[in-house]
Amino acid sequence: MLTALYGGAFDPVHNGHLAVARAAAAALEADVRLLPTGDPRHRAPAHASGPHRVAMLRLAVAGSQELTVDTREIDRAGASYSFDTLRELRGELGDEAPLALIVGADALLGLPRWHRWRELFGLAHFVVAERPGVDLDAACAGGELGDAVRGRWLGSAAALRAAPGGGLLRLWLPLQPESSSAVRAAVAAGASIATAVPPAVAAYIAQHGLYR
Ligand SMILES: Nc1ncnc2c1ncn2[C@@H]1O[C@H](COP(=O)(O)OP(=O)(O)OP(=O)(O)O)[C@@H](O)[C@H]1O
Ligand SMILES: O=C(O)c1ccc[n+]([C@@H]2O[C@H](COP(=O)([O-])O)[C@@H](O)[C@H]2O)c1
Question: Which of 18, 43, 131, 171 to mutate to test the pocket of ligand 1 (most atoms within 8 A of CB)?
Fold first, then answer.
């Protein structure tokens, strides 16, 4: 069984995240673990606390067989480096089990700034979802990222499952317009977020007065 980790701030989780996670679960026949960051060093701290973000994720995946929430980066002290998380998972799953990290195209573009980024290909595959405003092909055509990903693109989920890591796979789904920053801005402006997040998440945000 392929294990797929989908990391992010999830501040809050939105329908775009869920569409990507569900598409990955279906296309890869994988268990997808949504992994909220605890202490990210690459961006400002999240607006909502770890426990609030975990609670919203749990509401969002309630009733789903294939999506779960992995709180290890919230529970762990210190920086939330993907390298450490993937190495820990590798220790749990063994060297041969296929393991993938799901990222949006904007996150893949920032990969050369990640901690020990070149070593990540030795630990897992990358599964990449397109995102509005990001030209993935252009970004992967040259530079450090282009050099690193050249020759790694795989054509199928079966090819991904056949190796423990080191490949990249494009995840095909319609472009998802949502972003957490737009959700936060809408809440702060008193606008509706009903089309951007699941009803239970919207209710949680209102009940706890988040993002005002
Ligand atoms: N609409 C989307 N389509 C595709 N990928 C997405 C989308 N929203 C988020 N992602 C991806 O999900 C992961 C986690 O994203 P994150 O939790 O930072 O959400 P965000 O919407 O980008 O937040 P913010 O607006 O605060 O930057 C990243 O890999 C990101 O690229
Ligand atoms: O390990 C790193 O240095 C690193 C740097 C940037 C992003 N990441 C991971 O990438 C995932 C998406 O993060 P973000 O902020 O780009 O949405 C999340 O799991 C982060 O922990 C990881």
Answer: 131
The rounded mean pLDDT for the chain is: 97
**What are the pLDDT digits (tens) for 125-176?**
999 999 999 999 999 999 999 999 999 999 999 999 999 999 999 999 999 9
Q: Which one-letter DSSP state was computed for residue 7?
A: E
Assess: ipTM above 0.90: yes
The Cα–Cα gap between 99 and 164 comes to 6
Q: Where are the domains of the chain?
A: 2-175
What is the pTM assigned to this prediction? 0.98
Ligand 1 atom closest to 16 (CA): 1
Determine the topology of domain 2-175 in CATH: Rossmann fold (3.40.50)
Q: Count CB-CB contacts under 10 A for residue 141.
A: 12
* Burial of 101 from C-beta contacts in 10 A (0-12 / 13-18 / 19+): buried
Query: Is the shortest distance between the CB of 10 and ligand 2 below 6 Å?
Result: no
Interval between CA 61 and ligand 1 midpoint (Å): 17
